[in-house]
């Protein structure tokens, strides 16, 4: 089966590479010529563990190729995935211009029956718009071609994208014809051999499932962050509370890790977009409005602790920042909490020294020369008064504290053993842990 994936970003490239890995012939298409030229030379646009290996292998065996010319590669394809960005518009709603542009281009170039699948995260009703674009483009060509539109939201996480795609918890597919259902069932068969389910449903429900999933996960995070902040006030330890509640299978252990707020290209924009969809239908999603408000405050929780510790006098105080990306395993800086903290520190007159194992290049686009770029984690705390652990990369898990005499520790991800640090005479703060000092 031949498949076209349009949009070669996090989702498109992982989708294309993983489909090729199980035997499908895939062409990844993008408007960004540099990206495609680099990919043809084996240079990836993103850092994602395991991705380079399968891209290189499948490009070499001829199953995976790259193009900027959709019309040239679409003949013979059974499926076209739309995997372009859906960034937030000014009012918070998902901007569908890229998705609809691609739908139009598909209509202008398709040559045979095709299943057009939206993989981008899109609001309910988008498949109808995609269908309209294709139909209009075909009418312009005076062509009668059969096609189906389907919805197949993607649930992969950055940093674990390849594994998530190859071994999904489930695959959700919204269809409105038996023909498209059969094509997608066959395409995904290799991923379902170990009993993983493919869940077919109507298209609107599939579109909604994606937002509901991200909104639920964001809710868990804001909930535990709210509880963590209360733990700080009452003198409880949220690490214990997390274990205590997580062992109840109905609650579960995942996505209840407190921190400095969720970031990334998805939760913030998808929560906003779902709230906006609610408003369009006259329905206020009150829980999600609170989830977003809690998260915005949480991005400053470490700064508040820092300000309290220094009695508001931050001018000239030097901070080492460990980790910049919005989570470990990626160089993605979109909506990273580090940016909020760093900007608050700089505004207060502090000196900021930063290190991230992977995201330094990406972060330079935003931070420029406002911070000191360091060569490693210890260089970042050289001469520093304090260190803020922002992204819990493995590299930061067991520091040599003897190299950091007198440095105050602000742990934004609760990865350090605060009582142990206290015993060693190190002043340290966590999120929602009983204040040790
Ligand atoms: P991205 O910004 O990394 O990549 C989008 C790509 O689309 C870019 O390379 C861009 O050049 C290309 N593009 C734009 N217009 C095009 C056109 N007309 N023709 C061809 N290519 C075009 O985006 P992403 O992070 O991969 O996200 C894509 C979608 O998937 C979004 O809707 C997002 O919400 C959703 N999603 C993302 C993730 C994730 O972890 N990043 C996970 C699940 C779902
Ligand atoms: C998230 C979802 O997990 C994916 O299922 C989804 O496909 C994707 O969004 C998307 O729609 O694009 P991602 O944003 O890559 O994936 O990363 P997550 O692991 O979900 O982390 C998101 C943010 O939440 C990070 O800033 C992370 O630090 C934070 N987080 C996560 C917490 O603060 N606590 C937790 O317990 C878990």
Task: Please name the defining characteristics of this protein.
elongated, binds nicotinamide-adenine-dinucleotide, Rossmann fold, 17 helices, binds uridine-5'-diphosphate-glucuronic acid, UDP-Glc/GDP-Man, NAD, six-stranded parallel sheet, single chain, alpha/beta, NAD(P)-bd_dom_sf, 437 residues, UDP-glucose 6-dehydrogenase activity
Bound molecule kinds, no repeats: nicotinamide-adenine-dinucleotide, uridine-5'-diphosphate-glucuronic acid
How much is the radius of gyration in Å? 24 Å
Strand order of the largest sheet: 3-2-1-4-5-6
CATH superfamily of the largest domain: NAD(P)-binding Rossmann-like Domain
Which CATH architecture of the largest domain is right?
3-Layer(aba) Sandwich
Biggest beta-sheet profile: 6 strands, parallel
Q: What name does the CATH topology of the largest domain carry?
A: Rossmann fold
Shape: elongated
Strand composition percent: 5-15%
Mean pLDDT: 97
Number of structural domains:
3
Low-confidence stretches: none
CATH class of the largest domain: Alpha Beta
Main structural class = alpha/beta
What's the total helix number? 17
Q: Compute the separation of the termini in Å.
A: 63 Å
Helix content: 40-55%
